[in-house]
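Hi support team,

I submitted a single chain yesterday and got back a structure, but I'm not sure I'm reading the token output correctly. Could someone confirm the output below corresponds to the sequence I sent? I've pasted both exactly as they appear in my results page.

Thanks,
R.
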Amino acid sequence: MEELHIPVLLSEVLHVLNPKVGESYLDLTAGYGGHASEILGLTRNYKDSVLVDRDSFAVKFLKEKYKSESLEIVNDDFYNSVLKFVESGKTFDIILADFGVSSPQLDRSERGFSFTKNGPLDMRMDRTQELTADYVVNRYPEWKLAEIFVKYGEEGQGNAKRLAREIVHARPFRTTLELADFIKSKSKYSKMHPATRIFQAIRIEVNDELGLIERTLPLLPKILSPGGRVAIITFHSLEDRLVKNYFREVSEHGEESELEIINKAPITAGKNELVINPRSRSAKLRAAKRR
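Hi R., thanks for writing in. Yes, this is the structure output for that exact sequence:
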């Protein structure tokens, strides 16, 4: 089948997770199966493994890709999935979560994630949910827009308030390019597109991305088998900070710690990968092992 998404840090993920024949595998953000196909190719254990994704397009692709295997594929967000595994007592030898937005989501204009492709203001990973980027941009009060621009886009207070005010006065906005071009017209020149952080902030708000991560992290040791490994890939400092702080907190209790950190510093993409896949430039990989 067509390879829709280049998995980031693939060799590094395989190194830290060290998949072995017969081990069970949980992919909490399986996407289009880039990492999963390599890991499952090494474990060869489909019946005890689960692939999860909240994007119905990705799930449809995965079900077609693995239609000949007895592999469980779940259309849900990773927090709800982990909760169900905790309640059922199910554990895994290997867990992977890649918190990035997949290439098909960015590249398909109708998904509304990209500020370089014209499409509706959508940005939903789960197309069944009600909250959309359109609602955030056109219905949120000025103070709330400024708040998420600072909190999730890491914009400065002054610029966030100014952009929020400009957007409220000029709305409604209906398409991604309409909003992106407006933000650019109201911003000073910079190497990075002025809409980058604003679109990130809106996307995180729409999908509750940080909230899901915060609620999921403390549950991971409960579904990880003794000696099991968990690897997490993040794409911006807000996500990485949550993972770094959580791993540090649960590994600081000596022999009583639930997890042992595998790599003290985050692993990043090498020069070769950066040439092949420029989107990997912001990826950071952290991993831990269950005691």
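A quick pointer for reading it: The longest strand covers residues 224-234. Let us know if anything else looks off.

Best,
Support desk
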